[in-house]
Amino acid sequence: MHPQLSRYIEEIQGRRAWGSLLDAGTGVQSIQWIADLETNRWSAISASPSHAKKVRKAISHRQRPEDKIIVGNWLSPKLLENETYDTVIADYLLGAVEGFSPYFQSFLFKRLRPLTGKVLYVKGLEPYVPIPRPDSEAGQLIWEIGRHRDACVSLGGSLPYREYPAQWAAHHLQISGYSVREIKHFDIRHKAKFINAQIDLCAPVLKNLSDRVLAAALKLRGEALRERALDFIKANGALDFGQNYVIMAEPH
Ligand SMILES: C[S@@+](CC[C@H](N)C(=O)[O-])C[C@H]1O[C@@H](n2cnc3c(N)ncnc32)[C@H](O)[C@@H]1O
Q: What residues are in contact with ligand 1 under a 6 Å CB criterion?
């Protein structure tokens, strides 16, 4: 999805061994990257059984007997109790916590601290929905699509993801027993794949919405946003808006 972030992590890691590795919020993208690294073993955690199933399917041919995919929630003190990993990766985990354990974000890094042997890498997304309407056309489109998607997710009875700024994450790492060594931001160039994925996320919700008038109106709104965004990308190559970040922190 964002190969330059993974490359940057590989650069910082340099010649140090990855050793045992924990993918603390797993997904198809992170596990495929991790399977390419020279690790002794890895464990991949997801709070969602369906997410874990996708990960299992994507990686089964490369999974060694010592590699584990576990469905569990960091809310549970029993999850990986007494285990330590040389390298911990929190790949878009912080933003997803809202969907699985709301109000737990402030405790996440503290929860991962005893599991972190040598280094923790956090990949995240600067919030782009709970901000004032951006000035640029690209920004406005991304902002409107994000708000439309989150409205659909809420109407469907789930909690939308909630992203946190890098500064928030760095502060919480510092008060959770880590020293922050690196913070780097990466500009995002949104392409058609991203736009389609965001609008398509609404489809199952709209299908089940009991208010059919509202469902039809939301469907129209989503398709109008899709058309505007895809036209913009055709004309300009991408929708340039927002930033991803990587933070590297070491336990102290
Ligand atoms: C956005 S996905 C991560 C993306 C993934 N790294 C990838 O490459 O596709 C977030 C992951 O974090 C997991 N997650 C979120 N909150 C969690 C929690 N409280 N405990 C355990 N896993 C959690 C989700 O179940 C999901 O597997």
A: 25-30, 45-48, 51, 73-75, 91-93, 96-97, 100-101, 104
